[in-house]
Amino acid sequence: MSDPQTDVEYNVRNTVSPELFDEIIGEYLARSERAVQGLRGFTDIYYDPHSQQKLDVWGVTDDPRPVFIAIHGGYWRALSRHHTAFMARTLDSEGIATVTVDYGLAPETTLEEIVRQVRAAVAWVYHHGAGHGLDPDRIVVGGSSAGGHLTGAVMVPGWQRALGLPETVVRGAMPISGLFDLRPLVDSFANEWLELDIERAHALSPLLLVDGPGPAAVIAVADRDGAGFLTQTHRFHDAWAEHSPCTLLVVPDRNHYDIFLDLADSTTALNRALVGMINGLAEQRSPAG
User: Which residues does UniProt call coiled coil (predicted)?
Assistant: First the structure.
């Protein structure tokens, strides 16, 4: 049985009407399709032989570009990379490439495996990105909701060496309306598909794995978000800021779902923060290896 109060704090579907939810999710896909039309890129790349998951690369030129790896949300059980390319044309105009990533969905795929897959996607960009117009020394990762949690999972230390990566492979990060301490979800409706216990939730919680310096980060949340997401965003920002450059961005007049679309609009604070972070990366490059 789930805890009713926990369900209230973490069930963000109840923060918008069903009609608005359907409209925004439809915009994810429609805007993504329009954004990539005519953009130079590479599609349907198998980035992980084990899972056969795919990624797409958008907005490349003959010169290596910094890259934004966009990770979709959907409470780890819905959506795809095809819903997550809506910022590609706007970033292309700023000289930034976009990589959109699929991962296996719960409950068929465990959360440990989802995290492993997303880390494998980062490894693919580092090891193979140079052959696809990407600069492996200017990788920024971001995502919304479940994608915010998965962004946190690549921000923390301890996993890079096993994939042949430097600790600094992720140079910048933008988790948006994410969850960073999964222990409350053990007593929530979401555990119907996550099937977590406290020990596994602890091991999968970026907030509990912060251990020294990491990438610069903009940690963002909608001001109309769910209570649990707002609280966790503030907690993760405070923990990350103890060791690393970090900005907290609470976006006014946005909800849990439409905040992500701000990345496609060059006039928004979220887009400007992302572009500013990427433009601020050091230009020095080391061999991708």
Answer: none
Q: Answer yes or no: is 204 within a domain.
A: yes
Sheet holding 53-58, edge to edge: 41-48, 53-58, 97-101, 65-71, 134-144, 172-176, 216-222, 246-251
For residue 189, give the DSSP letter: T
pLDDT tens column, 145-170: 999 999 999 999 999 999 999 999 99
Can you give the CATH number for the domain in which 52 is found?
3.40.50.1820
> For the stretch 10-48, what's the b/e string if a residue is b when 16 or more beta carbons lie within 10 angstroms of its beta carbon?
bbbeebbeeeebeebbebbbebbeebbeebebeeebebb
Structure tokens, 229: 């997401």
**Residues paired with residue 41 on neighbouring β-strands, in sequence order:** 58
What is the rounded distance in angstroms from the CA atom of residue 122 to the CA atom of residue 154?
Answer: 8
Domain contains 284: no
| 37-48 pLDDT, tens digit each | 999 999 999 999
Cα 287–chain centre separation: 25
